[in-house]
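tokens incoming
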């Protein structure tokens, strides 16, 4: 039986201050998604910063965890490989009904990438895709590299009963040294960068505003992945 839908309601934005511990927030997300699946909760987008942690996706290899030191590690149910989360990195979890947005996971990930690319353009950055490597990259000719691509935003998602979970992370000014303790997303032919590393002094509030402003073009009314 198809879900009966009413007029489009935009997702609720939940912005958490402070550095959030990973495990409790993961449980909160899973509980919220179960409520969505029962039609007891609205679509939502969560934004926050994590306490320092390495997370492993379903394709993570133990050999890519090089030297975590005292930074905790955790296995997650999202797609992808190893990544780092920590202060100075803004994490965005869009919790959306993909059953009403085309049931196309590839299109959803591409929509996330387009959203991120638009956000970066608000600050004069040219974000790029890499075929077969979800995320957004910037070309580095400023450090003597020969057009090296460095990742500025990572994507790792999970879908349960066509409700999206997890999402993406944008590097504002995290400790980039932490990424050297893993092989981020299994990629060895590119580095990791951030707004601060690129010489851009952008506040978290400014980045949050751009993320909210750019959402509708990709997931709102009239967009390729609008809710039906």
């Amino acid at each position: 039986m198809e879900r009966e839908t009413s007029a489009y309601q935009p997702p609720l934005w939940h912005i958490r201050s402070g550095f959030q511990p990973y495990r409790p927030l993961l449980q909160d997300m899973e509980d919220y998604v179960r409520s969505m699946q029962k039609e007891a909760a609205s679509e939502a987008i969560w934004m926050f910063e994590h306490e320092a942690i390495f997370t492993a996706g379903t394709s993570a290899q133990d050999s890519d965890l090089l030297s975590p030191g005292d930074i905790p590690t955790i296995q997650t149910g999202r797609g992808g490989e190893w990544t780092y989360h920590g202060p100075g990195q803004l994490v965005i979890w869009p919790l959306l009904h993909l059953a009403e947005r085309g049931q196309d996971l590839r299109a959803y990930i591409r929509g996330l990438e387009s959203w991120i690319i638009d956000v970066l353009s608000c600050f004069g950055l040219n974000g790029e895709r890499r075929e077969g490597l979800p995320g957004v990259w910037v070309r580095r000719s400023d450090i003597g590299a020969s057009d090296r691509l460095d990742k500025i935003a990572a994507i790792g998602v999970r879908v349960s009963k066509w409700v999206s979970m997890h999402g993406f992370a944008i590097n504002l000014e995290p400790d980039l040294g932490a990424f050297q303790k893993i092989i981020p997303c299994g990629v060895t032919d590119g580095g990791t960068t951030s707004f601060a590393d690129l010489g851009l002094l952008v506040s978290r509030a400014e980045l949050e505003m751009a993320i909210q402003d750019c959402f509708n073009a990709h997931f709102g009314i009239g967009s390729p992945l609008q809710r039906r």
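note: The chain has a mean pLDDT of 93.
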